Amino acid sequence: MKGSTPVSLNLLSASIPSPEWSFFDLGPFRIHAYALCILAGIILATVITSRRLTKRGAEPGVVLDIILWAVPLGIVGARIYHVLTHPGDYFFEGADLLRTLYIWEGGNAIFGSLIGGAVGAYIGCRLTGIRFWTFADAVAPALLVAQATGRLGNWFNHELFGLPTTLPWGLEIEASNVAFPVGLPSGTLFHPTFLYEIIWNLLGVAVILYLERKFRLRFGQTLGAYLIWYGLGRSFFESIRIDPSEIYFGIRTNVWAALAAIALGLVIIFVQRHRHPGLESSPYVSGREWIAPDAGVEFEDSDSEPEDNTTADQSDDADHPESPATAATSTSAPRL
Predict the structure, then answer these.
(1) Is a pLDDT exceeding 70 seen at residue 19?
(2) Total structural domains in the chain?
(3) Is residue 35 part of a domain?
(4) CA-to-CA dists, residue 141 to 77, 147, 188, angstroms
């Protein structure tokens, strides 16, 4: 017994402490760290996506017109998914149904945000003329940055930690936490799944950007790579979490969602690779190209034949292979 105390103290001294605060008051307003992390992630993703779209020839700032739809619907989708996959937390006799709206308490599911955000992005792309798959590719690595930033919110909320561990980077969780497993002694450390996912996501940014350049991923293939990468990591991290979750056939709901993301990513890459073997000629659908204000700028297909504006060309995924000259530059065609 005497030898066990120093070991416990050494482990605790090397562990990761949970923050002592999760919000602060600014006048009459209460600012939650969780919300700030999500907001920071949205801002970073917007900046990254805007730069990537602009490099492909889109109008600077057009991303704002798209995220005005994608972000709100993404948040709504995230909350709906969480509530529906954790019915026991919100729907019981005497429950306060307004708590289903308390997003500052945590509970915004990534997979729900992807579904809702995709719907919003599609609407925004239709309104701006940006090809949906072009936007999807531009936002893919930015999503990982946003998710890594948002995971810090779980740390501030002392939530979504993993199994007990004796590793030196174990996470400290107070025994009074409602999610603290019954029967474990105070001072037990847990896997910091928030940190694992942050590292995995940031590593994924580098991997996806490399694959995009190496294999010239376009037409949603970068998004497919994102879904595969994130799904692989999430399927593992989810399996070591101990927070309550609905179980189907012995597997947590979000593990099923992660496996579905992997499958969807593979399908997108396979289908789009065969449908569109070339590169994009423009980030815009035919007939809605942006005209740069600098008339002196040379555009990649200024000498090309005008496109046939058929009905198929007007669709979001009607992309046209580039000529060899076009493939050498990333600028867009002028608006007609």
Answers:
(1) yes
(2) 1
(3) yes
(4) 20, 10, 35
Q: Evaluate whether residue 112 is within a structural domain.
A: yes
Residue numbers belonging to the annotated binding site? 151
User: In this structure, is residue 236 part of a structural domain?
Assistant: yes
Distance CA 237, CA 178 (A): 21
Say if 284 falls within a structural domain.
no
Q: How confident is the model at residue 106 (pLDDT cuts 50, 70, 90)?
A: low
**How long a stretch of residues is the chain?**
336
Enter the pTM of the model. 0.82
Name the residue range of residue 204's domain.
30-164+193-275
Instruction: Please give the structure tokens belonging to residue 53.
Output: 């779209």
Better-scored residue on pLDDT, 312 or 197: 197
Pick from 133, 185, 150: nearest CA to 4: 185
Q: What's the pLDDT score for residue 107?
A: 78
Distance from C-alpha of 29 to C-alpha of 84, rounded to nearest angstrom: 29
